[in-house]
Amino acid sequence: MIYSFKGFIPVVHESAFIHPQAAVTGNVIIGKDVYVGPGAAIRGDWGEIVIEDGCNVQENCTLHMFPGKSMRLKEGAHIGHGAIIHGANIGRNVLVGMNSVLMDDVEIGDECIIGALAFIKAETVIPDRKLVVGNPAKIIKDVSDEMIAWKTKGTALYQKLPKDCYGSLRAVEPLREIPEDRPTQEAFYKTLEEFRKK
Fold first, then answer.
1. Where are the strands (E) in the chain, listed by range?
2. Quick one: what percent of the chain has pLDDT higher than 90?
3. Count of domains forming the chain
4. pLDDT tens digits, one per residue of 25-39
5. Residue 197 resides in a domain
6. What would be one Pfam family of this protein (predicted)?
7. Residue 89: which domain range?
């Protein structure tokens, strides 16, 4: 659902996919090939939210900020299921893990990986290419070329997902029995450990 607020109407590129069960409100700008999953709330009611090309904001994420602030997700940012970004700026090709919380005026450098369930306190600045985990969050090491290659490959799947959703996502009535010819889904992306073994 897309809502205007105090004269601000969200701007959404035609190639982006906003799930009908997501809510995008007010001063929000969404770029090319962006995926926004069901249950996501992107609230540009008190300030501007810019989501650059190729980002994804997955199911049940919240993006919001204090009045008069703005926030930006740079190109290829990958926001995992249930994450809360409150007034933080996210660098290019960053992975924010599931159920992480990033507080106000946080600055995440390019190509960082934020672990699942991390809590990053207000005004924290994380340099480029760092792996950050924990509550409170701490930098534990640099992100390797291998790790960022794995992350980039996963984000590429989400960059294709809007087109797939436009082509095949439909509201339907459920089947009552499993068909004998039900296909098996392909395993086309692996965990980081499986990726390392290839």
1. 2-3, 11-12, 17-18, 23-30, 35-36, 41-51, 56-57, 62-64, 70-73, 78-79, 84-86, 89-90, 95-96, 101-102, 107-108, 113-114, 119-120, 125-126, 130-133, 138-142
2. 93
3. 1
4. 999 999 999 999 999
5. no
6. Hexapep
7. 2-142
